[in-house]
Design goal:
The complex is a heterodimer of chains A (174) and B (212). With 174 residues, chain A is mostly helical. Chain A has nine helices and no strands. Chain B is rod-shaped. Classes of the chains: A mainly alpha (174), B mainly alpha (212). At the A-B interface, helix 3, helix 4, helix 5, helix 8 and helix 9 of A face helix 4, helix 5 and helix 8 of B.
Chain lengths: 174, 212
């Protein structure tokens, strides 16, 4: 059995010891780990104060109760989308400048030292260097801050389209 | 359309602009601005849009506020297009194959921005010219290559700007619909009042005709 297999086996055994979060609050927190913008979850506007205020104000403009509820929900939904749009735009994924600018070829001695201080298999070093290079390619492909925020906000276009269409439909049907 | 005339501020309005802004709901109109943006400028753009409406209802004011935000987003995305070009130019310069030194992308990008803007100091301008000379590229060559390099992201930004235009169209139609509805209600009220007064006048006449 090679060193590499030993290591991966050891890694798998250690991973089994990790049981993830144990407390209720830990589980609640980790359940949100992959949450990006929350726009796919069904919102509950009806119980909010803003919704009640809006419904009352819109009712004064001569819309029926059903249409008022529709417009208020549409408006709050549109706001929710635009707030997520702003948050996504203003906090893009940070650029890992170290990874982007690192010289992979020059890092080979470091890799071999990291893998095994007493000297490691050249195959292991090559694998690590190629893994590092692929991460670097990925990082470079994402571009700078402007490219990242454009790509991130671009994913929210369909939510904005649906949000404004819903609001506009609600207003015009009234 | 409303968004094409919002820059004309000198418009006769029945209601003072300050009163119109009071009809806005704070949770719909409070702007979320970036650190380098001016709140006063945002508010002035909103006020000029509101001044186009006669006596706007809270709903119309809320929609105008969303419309103003769209204009703001178009501004941001347009500025981003230029930033994307600077980023790509810096990237091209930093990876310029024949040179062993690696330039800091962000530093080059910011220096290029200032250089093209004409606000770069002497040293910075000399540095940029030196990098260009080493890369054997003219500024226009670099720009063309950068445009090609950043085309994918520029297309994305164009999509974002287009989306804002579409959203503004929706908002404009909604505002028109509210305006039309309120005018229709007013007209019907007037017609009803006219009918009522006609009816009462007829009633008086018929009472007068009755033999005593």
């Amino acid at each position: 059995m090679t060193m590499n297999h030993h290591r991966s086996l050891a890694n798998r055994c250690n991973a089994l010891k990790s049981t993830g979060p144990r407390s209720a609050s830990g589980k609640r927190a980790s359940s949100q780990n992959s949450r990006k913008h929350g726009l796919n979850s069904a919102p509950d506007f009806e119980s909010s104060l803003e919704y009640q205020t809006l419904v009352e104000l819109i009712a004064e403009e001569g819309f029926s109760a059903f249409v008022c509820a529709d417009i208020a929900a549409g408006l709050l939904n549109y706001r929710r989308v635009m707030d997520a749009y702003y948050d996504t735009y203003s906090s893009p994924e940070p650029v890992d400048e170290f990874l982007r600018d690192a010289n992979v070829k020059a890092s080979n001695p470091i890799f071999s030292e990291l893998l095994s201080p007493s000297g490691s298999e050249p195959q292991d070093v090559r694998e690590m260097a190629s893994f590092f290079a692929s991460m670097q390619r990925q990082e470079r492909r994402k571009g700078g801050p402007a490219s990242r925020r454009s790509a991130d906000t671009h994913k929210l276009i369909r939510y904005q389209r649906n949000g404004i269409a819903r609001l506009s439909r609600a207003i015009r049907q009234g | 359309m409303l968004y094409t005339i919002h820059f004309s501020i000198d418009v006769d309005v029945a209601m003072p602009v300050e009163d119109k802004s009071k009809s806005l709901l704070p949770f719909l109109s409070s702007p979320k601005l970036l650190p380098n943006e001016s709140k006063a400028e945002f508010q002035s753009s909103l006020q000029s849009l509101l001044s186009e409406l006669d006596n706007p209802s809270p709903l119309a004011a809320a929609l105008v506020s969303q419309l103003n935000e769209c204009l703001w987003w178009i501004r941001r995305h347009t500025a981003d297009k230029e930033l994307l070009l600077y980023e790509a130019m810096a990237r091209l310069l930093s990876k310029g194959g024949i040179y062993t030194e690696t330039y800091d992308n962000r530093k080059v990008s910011e220096a290029l921005e200032r250089y093209l803007d004409g606000s770069a100091d002497k040293d910075e301008a000399a540095w940029i010219e030196d990098i260009l000379a080493k890369s054997k590229l003219t500024l226009s060559d670099l720009r063309v290559r950068a445009f090609k390099d950043a085309a994918r992201h520029i297309k994305m930004v164009d999509d974002l700007i287009h989306r804002q235009h579409q959203t503004m169209r929706h908002l404009q139609r909604s505002i028109d619909s509210i305006d039309y509805k309120s005018r229709l209600i007013k007209r019907m009220d007037l017609e009803l009042a006219a009918l009522g007064s006609k009816q009462s006048a007829k009633g008086v006449l018929s009472l007068d005709d009755e033999p005593s």
